[in-house]
Design a protein that fits this description.
Rossmann fold, seven-stranded mixed β-sheet, Quinone Oxidoreductase, Chain A, domain 1, 17 strands, six-stranded parallel β-sheet, alpha/beta, single chain, 25% helix, 353 residues
Length: 353
Amino acid sequence: MISARGIAATSATDPLVPWDFTRREPGPSDVLIHIHYCGVCHSDLHTVRGEWGTVPYPLVPGHEIVGRVASVGSHVTRFREGELVGVGCMVDSCRDCDPCRRGLEQYCEQGNTGTYAGIEAQTGRPTQGGYSTHIVVDQDFVLRIPDGLDPARTAPLLCAGITTWSPLREWKVGPGSRVGVVGLGGLGHMAVKLARALGAHVVVLTTSPGKVADALALGAHEVVLSGNEEAMRALRNSLHVIIDTVGAPHDLNAEMRLLTLDGTLVLLGGSPEPHPSPGAFTFITKRRRLAGSLIGGIAETQEMLDFCAAHGVMADIERIRPEDINTAYERMLRSDVKYRFVIDLEPLRQTTA
């Protein structure tokens, strides 16, 4: 086994603390990665605080991982030592079901193996994530980071980026598309950047007047305050796709009315409580759709990274040290970050015996 050091949650209520643990010995198809940066996702906070189900404590969160290959197994053909690589939200799947064969491993019928809080097939132990010095991952779930991308600003692309890219691609967003983005946080700011880079006209819907200037600076063509009834009426029947990133219950009727004929409202935010049900006539009168989307497959994630490199798209981040993680969680709850915390893991590596 390989000794590692991470920042772990030991209960739903206690602060995260340094924790020494072991990774599996790399097998023939494995890649050993020294982690340089890991993004801090709101899902990390929900998970470690037990809001999304039972947690196998102690748990090292983190699924927006960028680092360099330290070594590769004898069967590895895709990566070489020293290469800059990434790991996203999953590290395995059954690879045999219909979604897996179609490159949609995120929808694996057996359940994909999460980068943390999953069960590692090789050992039967809980998977541990990227708030750590290094990780061992099968080559099929490792991504190549293209030249030209800043490693720290690339880390959030492995979750926030692919989570917004996947529905934009599924619903064929491009020149001529009008895209609404609801919520301007970690996911929302990436949705704006990616939709704009794809050639769409981007409209941000927000409840906060203080986010108008930021939304425009990120690339939005328009910003509409969702509490302004007159502005919302003027926007009705005009959007082809709406990407809703809000992770709390809210009334979807107003958003549905903004959609064109055959328009689609895509939910990305995981709300623990149900949304109020939209009225049937908001669907019927314009053949509108309500859909959901979950991260993306490995091939799709690589496509997204390559697109971002070609178009200079990266996350807006605030770098933190490992010891700042608990403060970052509290600030994240207050939406006090623009727009993603990213942990520099080098200080943690320096404390490893």
